[in-house]
Automatic annotation (TrEMBL):
Name recorded for this polypeptide: Predicted DNA-binding transcriptional regulator YafY, contains an HTH and WYL domains
Keywords annotated in UniProt: DNA-binding
Database matches in Pfam families: WCX, WYL
InterPro entries the UniProt entry points to: CBASS_pafABC_assoc_protein (IPR051534), WCX_dom (IPR057727), WYL_dom (IPR026881)
Domain of life: Bacteria
Segments forming domain WCX: 219-297
Organism taxonomic ancestry: Bacteria, Pseudomonadati, Bacteroidota, Flavobacteriia, Flavobacteriales
Length: 301
């Protein structure tokens, strides 16, 4: 059983290594092997394999991850032709690589440093997913930041959503859709009480939202932001929202447009950029940001 587990792990790691290398540039089979031969983890895990195994890997990568790798016969190079890796596969691959880096850091010294933070409540995820898939109500104690109170809830879980490095439970609480941060949930119990599936499309409902705030009066609008070139390049590499589109780029600014609900959490994100961003439109959002900036300045009077 151990040999099978190790073989599966090696195969997954080999797939991820091939994908990562070919995303940097086209390579021949020999170049891929050379890159792996210089990687301590690849050597330790015995990822160097034959051309025959490599061809089988390419077929598996296409069927499992939706990534088509083909060869340019004129230059004897392999390259990624089509990359349809979905969000789930990408996150799985990234988390696998992080876990592998943690394992390596223990072998090669204290070279990996994490931010100090509290638990994200991920210990609840397996139980909540079970309840969601089987339409079982859950009970828990919930700590509220607003007034530091603790309340007991029994809700109908719908989905789990990530927002700004936190995970949230989306659930029906007394006929109202609400969001609960997993790190504030205590004493979680999966009840035997079944409920009728809730007709709520999470992807549709949050498509035009920035973070976790939803169900407000704000309608999605076109937002245009002007960033300084330095900050703009950062935002371009890590978009604020999936609707982000480049509008203008010159020596003075980088401008993006969005179709988004200008909710509280989006306004707070804009304020975090300070003088590195300017709201150009809509006028209402520009006015609200100016108001909050004045209030912030008043705190230093």
């Amino acid at each position: 059983m151990l040999l099978i587990t190790m073989s599966v792990r090696q195969t997954i790691k080999r797939h991820f290594k091939i994908i990562s290398l070919l995303r940097t540039r086209p390579m021949s089979f020999e170049e891929l092997q050379d890159e792996m031969s210089n990687d301590p983890d690849s050597i330790e895990e015995n990822l160097l394999k034959s051309q025959r195994t490599f061809q089988r890997d390419l077929q598996d990568i296409e069927s499992i991850y939706g990534i088509t790798i083909t060869s340019d016969r004129s230059h004897n190079r392999y390259y990624i032709k089509e990359d349809y890796e979905d969000d789930h596969s990408q996150r799985l691959r990234e988390n696998f690589e992080i876990l592998n880096a943690i394992r390596l850091s223990k072998s090669f010294g204290n070279n990996l440093f994490f931010e100090k933070r509290k638990s994200l409540g991920t210990e609840h995820m397996a139980g909540l997913l079970h309840a969601i898939q089987n339409h079982l109500a859950v009970s828990f104690d919930y700590f509220k930041f607003w007034d530091e109170s603790v309340s007991s809830r029994t809700v109908k879980p719908i989905a789990l959503k990530e927002a700004r490095n936190r995970w949230y439970l989306i659930a029906v609480d007394q006929e109202t859709i609400k969001n609960f941060a997993l790190d504030r949930i205590k004493e979680l119990t999966i009840t035997p009480s079944k409920f009728t599936p809730v007709p709520y499309n999470v992807h549709k409902e949050f498509k035009d939202s920035f973070g976790i705030i939803n169900g407000t009066d704000e309608e999605p609008v076109k937002v245009v932001l002007s960033f300084t070139p330095r900050e703009g390049r950062y935002v371009e590499s890590l978009p604020l929202h999936h609707s982000q589109e480049l509008v203008l780029r010159n020596e003075k600014e980088i401008r993006f447009s969005y179709f988004i609900r200008p909710t509280y959490d989006f306004r707070m994100e804009l304020l975090s950029y300070g003088d590195q961003v300017k709201v150009l439109e809509p006028a209402g959002l520009k006015k609200e940001v100016k108001k909050q900036l004045r209030q912030a300045l008043n705190n230093y009077q």
